[in-house]
Amino acid sequence: MRDLFHSLLSSQQVGRSAGLLATLAEEAKQVGCEETEVIVANGIGFLSQAYEATAGLIGNTIVALASHRTVREQVRADPSLFRSVIKEVLRYDPPIQNTRRFLAQDGRVANQEMKEGDVVLVVLAAANRDPLANPNPEQFDIFRKDRHIFTFGAGPHICPGETLATMIASAGVEQLTASGVDLEQLARTVIYRSSVNARIALLATKEDA
Ligand code: HEM
């Protein structure tokens, strides 16, 4: 992957039209970073972060539509509701379940003595189901008022991809539904890819079964 990205970057830099990677390098240069290795690492990071979680969001939305007939009928009648479905999936069945924080120095966290370098596993998916943040959290409700979503993290390292991921997933799911795919059949046998932080549904078509 590194070799591929290195050669992609050099070919984009000599080419006439700047690709995404060359644009990233250009932006990095403007803030004082010219190390190719760093640009390449960040390019790979963008690619994998964007791909996995967004694929998970599409799959988990299919599962939600398959298991909620009323919602399925509502979005068929009014496709503008797809975005609300995606938002509720991000809360109810998020494709990324946790993130981590590492202690910069010894200290106390939630009344617990911790040492520099210790890890805090922040279970974002559980926070989404906190009744203080979202009343009746176990209810899948696309019309939920004041929805609080913790799925993209928080603070200085909050995910920068929320808008993009939501747009891609809405368009993907809308297109799939419009193509006449039988969602219930598609989500009949759902298994999940093994992962320490992601919940990515693997859906089987009739042919796969
Ligand atoms: C449904 C889709 C996505 C979910 C659920 C998701 C979730 C997350 C989470 C939980 C974090 C860690 C935040 C924290 O620790 O506070 C993160 C970081 C990040 N995400 Fe996403 N992400 C998604 C899509 C994307 C997309 C489409 C992109 C890029 C276009 C992206 C780029 C990144 C990057 C670069 C970071 C690191 C930010 C930093 O450390 O400063 N993500 N994401």
TrEMBL record:
<protein>
    <recommendedName>
        <fullName>Cytochrome P450</fullName>
    </recommendedName>
</protein>
<keyword id="KW-0408">Iron</keyword>
<keyword id="KW-0560">Oxidoreductase</keyword>
<keyword id="KW-0349">Heme</keyword>
<dbReference type="InterPro" id="IPR002397">
    <property type="entry name" value="Cyt_P450_B"/>
</dbReference>
<dbReference type="InterPro" id="IPR036396">
    <property type="entry name" value="Cyt_P450_sf"/>
</dbReference>
<dbReference type="InterPro" id="IPR017972">
    <property type="entry name" value="Cyt_P450_CS"/>
</dbReference>
<dbReference type="Pfam" id="PF00067">
    <property type="entry name" value="p450"/>
</dbReference>
<dbReference type="InterPro" id="IPR001128">
    <property type="entry name" value="Cyt_P450"/>
</dbReference>
<keyword id="KW-0503">Monooxygenase</keyword>
<comment type="similarity">
    <text>Belongs to the cytochrome P450 family.</text>
</comment>
<keyword id="KW-0479">Metal-binding</keyword>
